[in-house]
Protein: Elongation factor 1-alpha
Amino acid sequence: YKCGGIDKRTIEKFEKEAQEMGKGSFKYAWVLDKLKAERERGITIDIALWKFETAKYYVTIIDAPGHRDFIKNMITGTSQADCAVLIVAAGTGEFEAGISKNGQTREHALLAFTLGVKQLIVGVNKMDSTEPPYSEPRFEEIKKEVSSYIKKIGYNPAAVAFVPISGWHGDNMLEASTKMPWFKGWQVERKEGKAEGKCLIEALDAILPPARPTDKPLRLPLQDVYKIGGIGTVPVGRVETGVLKPGTIVVFAPANITTEVKSVEMHHEALQEAVPGDNVGFNVKNVSVKELRRGYVAGDSKNNPPRGAADFTAQVIVLNHPGQISNGYTPVLDCHTAHIACKFAEIKEKVDRRTGKSTEENPKSIKSGDAAIVNLVPSKPLCVESFQEFPPLGRFAVR
Structure:
């Protein structure tokens, strides 16, 4: 709201409604949920529900909710992000629950890294409800614990900003808080240089824009497909590689449907071209909503178009799995925006996680901590690509 993402009238209306429903303490979460419901009725061609501007960037929030049943959406959202903001709760017992073996904090950080989101910011939230409030030792304890965990995953803690905040009271969100005089600010060190600041918004400004692969063939995984009155069929998703323009003859894999792009739109404005990183809606001719679905991938029919794979070989790292995994195991794979059951047809070899060197041929089974080369067979065609050529389409998570 303070960043201009929501107007004053709207927030006041929601505050009043939240109060009436006895959800006063819930007003901000309520705002986002209400907005979502209201927007769904008058659907806008827009996957990102909230945007705001900082001094440097337009920021699009891809809300990736925290409950376990949301993990599928979290994977869809996360696979489109440039940076993850991990919010951990500092309240007594709350942090411990999140970081415990079956808590969400670990799973989210791990998924973010696995899905290629290499930049991370950690917001230590609810600092107002520590014992005593705004406790420095509590912040340091959490910072130490989270650092050690994210380091195991693959993040470099020195490159991660840890910011003590209270979203509810606004501490260290947009301006430095007077409640935590002990906090001298966050610092990060990366090969591109150092950055420092006091609040969360400055940490967002310190995000490094990733290189955008415009020179590669077009790949655009569909997040959703809308039918919009007076316009027609509008697939929505993020350009991962290449460029999408009006007039492009696109093909949707794996269904192999070809059509012309009439218009491309982002943030309610028509675009002459969409480049990697852009979340866009585009209008296509003569294709019904029923023919397209989330997980399909759009490409340029004339330039190395995407295709469905009947089977593929992948390196798989088992993070935590009860018991052993052997040939025939068929979990759901989340790859870009697709969610499809895939069979472990053949575990070809175990490899060393760090070097990739083979350590055992045709193992009977693999378990937590192992890495292996596996031949996978999707239950229906899935559009995957080699990690070398198209990283966003060559990564997946198995649940």
